[in-house]
Design brief:
Chain lengths: ~375, ~290
């Protein structure tokens, strides 16, 4: 703000080129408009009036506002004309310094001799310089504080100790804006540094309450939420006028010194999965094959049942058919069956017919070379 | 011209006097008016104020909440593990006169170093009385409040109100870092080995169950098959019994004939027959019973 008010005034002072103008320019260049400028204004006005009187006397025409234009026209009175231009310039500069604009995205406060008097309205505001000084800040601009990002020279900022005494590497970003400009300006000396310190403290507090595994896996959203509330509560307790817009939880990883071990665990989890899947595949294959086998065994048995019963029924009905015939003429059929069968049997068989009566006594049976007979049979085959 | 030449220096001098007699106090500040180093007026409210030029001087102090970051501090909790603790405090000047008397001309910087000593001492005292586990875990908030309350009492003598003390970091010392990493690695390795072992276990379980299911399924099928076969055999026997039971003697005859025919086939059979058998009844004679 100091630069803002000093700028136009400095310009006016240079163009004016008189003693008072230079004095004002020096003061305007300072950080804050101080008390001494008040009498200077009076001085300027006094001096200006004097010069105007001289101007009017010389030219006879013109008035206070357009006097400079008339003055410029008079070649003989160039020094006075320049002084007139300077006065108008000063007035313009003063007006420019006293009116200020407040955007919808901004808030302003007005200080009367350093004392807070009011909050500026949206739009055009009047703060008569240098008595009233306005300070304008954007309240929608999002400021960021990064914690743990780019572990450079302070390598352990992002390393935090968990409740189960593991270390986790955390990067996050706190986004904040100004919610109340008056509190923001007058209550807290170093907002950015304070937010940074409070954020780190809050995060470490939360991390210290939790174990490692939930931090790495699923609780990020909850942690970000809790963190935001904690930072906000602390900042509110300072009446800082700061609003924490959100917390971006960029990273929660194991530190790089141990990250390989964590990857190994993931690899092991996959190995485990693979083993289980393979076993499942084996089981599916084997059990399916067994079901096939079982079905086959059962079907075979059913086949056997059909075959056996059918055979039996066939055989039985064949017998019954023959029996039916047999009942009609028992002796004849019996004889015929016997002879027909013996005919077929003896027809295809080597036969030796011995008349025991002719041989007498014991007969020749005991002396038959049965083995020789078999051999000769085989030889003939 | 004569008059103005006289007037101008008067105006300038008067202006200088007024300039040096008036000062402003910003909304962010409190001011003390000192006369030869002694406090005469306290200017609490912002706005315009006056002093006697040349004799009195003005000292302004920030009345906002100010920052204080402590150096890393090694503390020894009750269980003799060492911890590195970083804290920060937020404080403001409450009583300017007391503050001025306490810190003199060293101002904010002097106050900062004194507050730091106070907070460090309180941190050592409070954190030294509990176990390191308490510091590292959930009870941190209570400890922070305890440190804050104790430091606050001491800081009152400086005219300072300690708004907040917070532990930023409470870590194991650097030397312990590698040990912690080693432990974390070992834990992960254990976990990995456990995962694989569990995987193998599950796989073996599944395979064994599959093998058992195979044996069970097949054996149940076989049992059922045997039952079926048994039923079939029984059925066959029943059919035969019913059919053949009509004339057992004829059945024996008929079945014997079938059996002879089936068993005495081929040239590997040699029959030694007597002409006396029934088949040869007519071999020697054309009339029976003569």
């Amino acid at each position: 703000m100091a630069g803002n008010t000093g700028g136009p005034w400095g310009g006016g002072g240079n163009s004016g080129g008189n003693n008072n103008g230079n004095g004002g320019g020096n003061n305007g260049g300072g950080n804050r408009p101080d008390k001494p400028q008040i009498p200077e204004i009076e001085d300027i006005v006094k001096k200006g009036q004097e010069q105007l009187r001289v101007l009017m006397g010389g030219k006879g025409g013109g008035n206070r506002t357009n006097g400079s234009g008339n003055g410029a026209g008079g070649p003989g009175l160039s020094g006075r004309a320049i002084a007139g231009i300077a006065i108008v310039g000063v007035l313009v500069a003063w007006t420019a310094a006293s009116f200020y604009r407040v955007d919808t995205s901004e808030q302003s406060v007005e200080l009367l001799f350093g004392k807070y008097v009011q909050t500026g309205e949206e739009g055009l505001n009047f703060a008569p310089w240098p008595v009233v000084k306005a300070e304008i800040e954007s309240v929608t601009r999002e400021n960021t504080v990064d914690i743990g990002v780019g572990r450079g020279n302070r390598s352990d900022e992002g390393l935090m100790l968990t409740g189960d005494e593991n270390i986790v590497d955390i990067d996050f970003q706190v986004v904040w804006n100004i919610s109340d400009l008056r509190s923001y300006l007058f209550n807290l000396a170093e907002p950015q540094a304070t937010i940074s310190a409070v954020s780190e403290s809050a995060m470490r507090e939360i991390i210290a309450r939790s174990n490692l595994a939930p931090i790495l896996n699923r609780d990020r959203g909850a942690i970000a939420q809790e963190l935001q509330e904690l930072i906000q509560a602390t900042m509110d307790s300072y009446e800082s006028g700061v609003q924490i817009v959100r917390v971006n939880f960029d990273k929660a990883d194991p530190p790089r010194e141990v990250i390989d071990s964590f990857r190994e665990v993931q690899a092991a989890e996959q190995t485990r999965d693979t083993l289980e899947k393979q076993a499942d595949a084996y089981a599916n294959e084997r059990v399916a094959a067994a079901r096939g086998t079982a079905a086959e065994v059962l079907e075979r048995a059913e086949g056997y049942r059909a075959q056996t019963v059918n055979q039996a029924e066939g055989e039985a009905s064949r017998f019954l058919a023959v029996y039916g015939e047999y009942v009609k003429a028992e002796e004849v059929t019996r004889k015929r069956l016997y002879l027909e069968t013996m005919e077929r049997v003896l027809g295809g068989v080597d036969k030796v017919i011995l008349d025991e009566a002719a041989g007498g006594g014991q007969g020749v049976v005991p002396y038959l070379p049965l083995n020789e007979l078999n051999k000769s049979n085989k030889g003939s085959n | 011209m004569n008059r103005s030449a006289f007037l101008l220096p008067v105006v300038v001098v008067a202006a200088l006097v007024v300039i040096s007699a008036v000062f402003t106090v910003d909304e962010r500040e409190r001011a003390l008016v000192l006369q030869f180093g002694e406090v005469v007026t306290v200017k609490e409210d912002p706005g315009l104020a006056f002093k006697i030029p040349l004799i009195q001087e003005v000292v302004k102090y920030d009345k906002r909440i100010l920052a204080l970051e402590t150096q890393s501090l090694e503390v020894t909790p009750a269980d003799d593990r060492r911890l590195v603790v970083d804290a920060f405090a937020r404080w403001r000047i409450q009583d300017v006169v007391k503050f001025r008397r306490a810190v003199g001309a060293s101002g904010i910087d002097g106050a900062t170093s004194r507050l730091q000593r106070i907070i460090n001492a309180e941190m050592r005292a409070v954190l030294g009385s509990v176990d390191s586990g308490t510091v590292l875990s959930a009870d941190r908030v209570a400890l922070m409040n305890q440190i804050r309350d104790k430091a606050r009492i001491q800081a009152l003598s400086l005219g300072v109100e300690i708004v907040d003390v917070r532990i930023k970091r409470a870590d194991l010392p650097e030397q312990n870092l590698s040990a912690t990493f080693a432990r974390m690695r070992a834990e992960r390795e254990r976990e990995a080995a456990d995962e694989i072992a569990r995987g193998k276990e599950a796989a073996q379980r599944v395979r064994a169950l599959a093998d058992r299911t195979v044996v069970e399924t097949v054996s149940i099928a076989q049992k059922e098959a045997d039952i079926i076969r048994g039923e079939a055999d029984a059925n066959r026997n029943a059919i035969f019994a019913e059919a053949f039971g009509k004339d057992p003697e004829f059945f024996a005859f008929y079945r014997s004939l079938n059996a002879y025919e089936a068993s005495l086939q081929g040239s590997n059979t040699t029959l030694v027959l007597s002409p006396d058998s029934e088949f040869f009844d007519y071999l020697k004679t054309d009339r029976l019973g003569e």
